[in-house]
């Protein structure tokens, strides 16, 4: 499947910003499950490429001159491979698998999370879909309720959240049982379903299977219509854009993401 993706992020400020530094994880990595046909990342300054601690492609943007706007554009086409029951397999690891078994501040345990973990099945891909459905029953999709700093426990207590919260809650449940699980940021061809385009899901380590990729929000496997950007222990280590600035007063953020499937023409 070929996905065409266009992701535009614009920051505007009431007063000029004196200094900005941003880390951009906006470049999909080539792997066994996706191939980059072409990709372009543009920004109002030099982009310094690197690999982060989790093996993600990362670019650093530093702006020293006063500025009132930052416009980032990522766009291109990605060929993806359908997965059988979400199985990524035992792919190469930038860090040990067990490094994804420990909780983080965003995926810390609570009594309610431990209660979900006590009855969750985690031994097969089918078990993971059942857990995703349970999480969706406990946390309805609703935007504007939580923030990027909200924890899994807070989203569960509120009973509402977005894909990031669903992913964090599944990570928390898995890790409460000592099962490695990692956060995935990326894109989804929305088709006729909501809560899509720019998206977050999880990979869970299943003994004998390797990594199994699950879209918790839609309680399905993350397969051919998904483009992977970055993995991490939670949102903070896999966020598409993170940064700091000096000055600027109030910030206005606008994000536009469009993902479509491109028909593949077979050669005769």
TrEMBL record:
This is Transglutaminase. InterPro entries: Bac_transglu_N (IPR013589), Papain-like_cys_pep_sf (IPR038765), Transglutaminase-like (IPR002931). It comes from Pandoraea cepalis. It comes from the Bacteria. Residues 155-218 form the Transglutaminase-like domain.
């Amino acid at each position: 499947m070929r996905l065409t993706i266009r992701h535009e992020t614009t920051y505007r400020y009431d007063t000029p910003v004196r200094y900005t530094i941003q880390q951009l994880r906006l470049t999909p990595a080539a792997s066994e499950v996706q191939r980059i046909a072409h990709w372009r990342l543009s920004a109002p300054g030099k982009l310094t490429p690197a690999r982060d601690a989790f093996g993600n492609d990362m670019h650093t943007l530093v702006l020293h001159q006063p500025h009132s706007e930052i416009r980032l554009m990522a766009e291109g086409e990605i060929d993806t491979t359908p997965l059988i029951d979400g199985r990524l397999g035992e792919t190469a690891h930038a860090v040990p698998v067990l490094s994804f078994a420990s909780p983080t501040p965003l995926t810390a345990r609570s009594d309610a999370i431990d209660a979900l973990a006590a009855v969750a099945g985690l031994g097969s891909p089918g078990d993971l879909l059942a857990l995703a459905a349970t999480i969706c029953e406990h946390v309805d999709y609703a935007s504007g309720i939580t923030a990027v700093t909200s924890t899994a426990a807070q989203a569960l207590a509120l009973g509402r959240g977005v894909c990031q919260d669903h992913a964090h809650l599944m990570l928390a449940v898995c890790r409460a049982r000592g099962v490695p699980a990692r956060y995935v940021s990326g894109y989804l061809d929305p088709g006729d379903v909501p809560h899509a385009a720019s998206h977050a899901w999880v990979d869970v380590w299943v003994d004998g299977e390797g990594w199994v990729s699950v879209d918790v929000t839609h309680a399905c496997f993350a397969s051919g219509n998904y483009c992977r950007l970055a993995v991490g222990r939670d949102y903070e280590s896999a966020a598409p854009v993170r940064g700091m600035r000096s000055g600027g007063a109030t910030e206005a953020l606008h994000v536009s993401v469009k993902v479509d499937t491109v028909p593949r023409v077979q050669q005769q």
